[in-house]
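Inverse folding, one chain.
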């Protein structure tokens, strides 16, 4: 039986040293029946997005050259990792995958979202191919699994939803065949629809969700997300000077934090774990001996009560739209219904909203196509203004005045305070 899921994100496999570090961690736990869920290396998902954009812009006329930066990136890691006589075989495997993609891409007439998933899945396919070969070479018997055969989803490309029954069946079958001591390794982020025919993805940064899906279907003991920070921090150390490590929080607090945009975990990750009461560890891959932060069903112990620690969460690249009925009617339930129906249809997710007598303000992640479609659909009945390139700053367990240091002199477009949370839409720094 597979008991533990280890998730390694792009930063934890961004170069050869990082992969060697992963190997060391796996070496120390290889007899614990673990399944590794691994993302694309470094920023490779972005690189694949760019390849697709170039192909589409050139109507498929682009040459193999478009693949070069991706090939070179992986080649460098492979050359650094493997013994000279093993290098060619691994490079060949990666080349084959890229050729497969290149051939698929020639048909650029398919819908963008569909083609996106068929393309970016290669980031994970390549990273896991390299890492499985490396672990096996290093004397850690590893079984490579194609996540597309296990995570079965609907056909909402770029944001697919698991078909839990089918996924559970397949994962449980896998578990029944599991051989003690063998390390399993699969891709995060990707799945497939239609009997495994078409790749799907679970949304950017979706590898955490993959780990949770496997954990739920396996009734696993725990999931560990290996990160480049010491655990769960109360703020992003890249933005805030003084951060505090949080030893423990409850599932519900974690959902709140993820909802507001804390980048620790993908928002969909918690529910499948909570439903089976599976502990989630957030652990440093730089200092693997350090105690992890733990997210589970227990209320936080008094000494570490989350309300005693304020969380600061910043979401970049926000668009703020203000919507007012043209006929000067109130922003009443009827008008709200009209607006939210369109939002639902366009899959616009409001990160923050506020109503006044004549206006509804919505703040969401920048997306020109969605914003234009919203204005197009509602333009007859509503006058719509918008601002872009804003930040949404959320303070959880807020105390008066705590926002001042971060906002310092910047324009506040919108603010809202509830008992536990304060939010500010502000001008970019
Ligand atoms: N590689 C995917 C991304 O960069 C998924 C992940 O990293 O979780 O979005
Ligand atoms: Mg990532």
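Residues assigned per position:
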């Amino acid at each position: 039986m597979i008991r533990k899921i280890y998730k390694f994100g792009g930063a934890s496999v961004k170069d050869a040293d990082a992969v060697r570090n992963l190997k060391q961690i796996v070496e120390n736990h290889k007899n614990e029946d673990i399944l590794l869920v691994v993302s694309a290396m470094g920023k490779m998902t972005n690189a694949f997005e760019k390849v697709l954009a170039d192909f589409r812009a050139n109507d498929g006329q682009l040459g193999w050259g478009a693949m070069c930066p991706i090939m070179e990136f992986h080649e460098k890691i492979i050359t650094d990792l493997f013994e000279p006589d093993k290098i060619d075989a691994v490079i060949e495997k990666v080349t084959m995958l890229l050729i497969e993609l290149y051939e698929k891409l020639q048909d650029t007439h398919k819908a963008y979202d569909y083609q996106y998933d068929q393309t970016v899945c290669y980031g994970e396919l390549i990273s896991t191919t390299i890492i499985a070969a490396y672990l096996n070479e290093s004397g850690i018997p590893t079984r490579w699994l194609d996540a597309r055969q296990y995570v079965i989803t609907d056909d909402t490309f770029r944001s697919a939803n698991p078909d839990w029954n089918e996924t559970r069946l397949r994962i449980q079958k896998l578990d029944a065949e599991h051989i003690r001591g063998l390390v399993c390794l699969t891709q995060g982020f990707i799945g497939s629809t239609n009997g495994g025919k078409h790749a799907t993805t679970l949304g950017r940064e979706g590898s955490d969700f993959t780990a949770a899906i496997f954990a739920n279907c396996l009734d696993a003991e725990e999931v560990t997300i290996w990160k480049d920070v010491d655990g769960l921090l109360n703020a992003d150390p890249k933005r805030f000077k003084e951060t505090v490590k949080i030893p423990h929080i409850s599932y519900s607090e974690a959902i709140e934090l993820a909802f507001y945009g804390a980048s620790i975990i993908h928002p969909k990750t918690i529910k499948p774990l909570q439903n089976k009461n599976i502990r989630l560890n957030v652990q440093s891959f730089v200092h693997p001996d350090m105690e992890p932060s733990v997210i589970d069903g227990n209320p936080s112990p008094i000494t570490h009560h989350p309300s005693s620690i304020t969380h600061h969460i910043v979401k970049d690249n926000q668009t703020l739209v203000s919507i007012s009925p043209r006929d000067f009617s109130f922003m009443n339930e009827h008008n709200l219904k009209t607006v939210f129906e369109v939002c639902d249809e366009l899959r616009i997710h409001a990160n923050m909203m506020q109503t006044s007598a004549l206006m509804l303000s919505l703040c969401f992640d920048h997306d020109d196509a969605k914003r234009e479609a919203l204005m197009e659909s509602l333009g007859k009945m509503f006058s719509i203004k918008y601002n872009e390139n804003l930040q949404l700053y959320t303070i959880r367990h807020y105390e008066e005045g705590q926002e001042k240091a971060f906002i310092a002199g910047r324009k506040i477009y919108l603010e809202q305070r509830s008992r536990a949370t304060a939010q500010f839409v502000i001008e970019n720094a």
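The longest helix spans residues 112-137. The mean pLDDT is 93.
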